[in-house]
Structures are given as C-alpha cells and as structure tokens.
Amino acid sequence: MSVTTNANDTTRAATRNTIQRALVLEAVRSLHNHPTSADVYEVVRERHPNISRATVYRNLGVLASRGDVLRVEVPNGADRYDFFNEPHYHALCRSCGQVSDVDMPYQNDLADQVRDAQGFAIDGHQIIFEGLCPSCQKR
Ligand SMILES: [Zn+2]
Ligand SMILES: [Zn+2]
Question: Distance, CA 128 to ligand 1 centroid (Å)?
C-alpha cells in the first residue's frame, strides 16, 4: 500500500470515480420503473459484486445533483430515480407504491403564478398524483 499521493494516484482515483459513476448511471438507465436507491444497488451488484452500497448511493446523489438523473421525492416513501431527466409529473399508487409517469406537459406557468403572488423566486416544482394503479384497481 502506498501512502504517497501524487498526480497518478489522483488521476487513478478520478478515473475510478468516473467508472463507478458510469456504472450507476447505466443501471438507472436500464430501469424504467422509477427504482429506489436499493433497487439500483441490486442491479449494479449483479454485474459488479465488489461495489459497495455506499458507493452506489453516493453516486446516485452526484448524478441527481448534476441533473444526469432525476430524483423523485415520494411523500412518506423512499426517493426514486428516473433515467428520464426532463421535468415531468408522476403518479404514485397508494396501494403497491408503484410510481409511473403522467402524460401531461410540464406547467411552466405554474411557477409564474407563484412568483407573481408571493415574490418567491421559484425555479421548479414536482407534482405527484396519488391513487390506484391499474392492477391494484382490479384487486
Ligand atoms: Zn398499485
Ligand atoms: Zn418519471
């Protein structure tokens, strides 16, 4: 084990970080069901058993803050991650917890209405509709 830090070590660490981030991004992009961080970890671990849960979770945070993936904050539930990173709306099934995309254009003027009324500088919003998914309605 080397205790010295030189440019090569720094480069190698940066390369490893880039590779790990790419693996996590690839896993999110392979899942189209709004996975939780635990779901993403399971997929990464199948192909790369040595990667730690902490590494996957940390990289999900980095990818979300860079806008490479969308983090969907679910009320009373685990955050979900979305390969589709444009602003869009979701529906949450209150029975099984499934999160789906809602086919509705993003309402930019909603933010304008809030700004006009409150002087608050809004830069985004999320909407999660709640109800029952088709398979839970059949039960
Ligand atoms: Zn359901
Ligand atoms: Zn979505």
Answer: 14
Question: 4 C-alpha vs ligand 2 centroid, how far in Å?
Answer: 45
Write down the pTM of the prediction.
0.85
Q: How far is the CA of 73 from the centre of ligand 2 (A)?
A: 11
Q: Give Cα separations from 130 to 77, 79, 92, 96, 99 (angstroms).
A: 13, 15, 5, 11, 9
Assigned architecture for domain 86-139:
2-Layer Sandwich (3.30)
89-136: pLDDT as tens digits: 999 999 999 999 999 999 988 888 887 777 888 888 899 999 999 999
In angstroms, the CA 10 to CA 59 distance is 18
All structural domains of the chain with their residue ranges: 1-85, 86-139
CA 94 to chain centre: 20
Please give the distance, rounded to the nearest whole angstrom, from the Cα atom of residue 138 to the centre of ligand 1: 10
Architecture of domain 1-85 in CATH? Answer: Orthogonal Bundle (1.10)
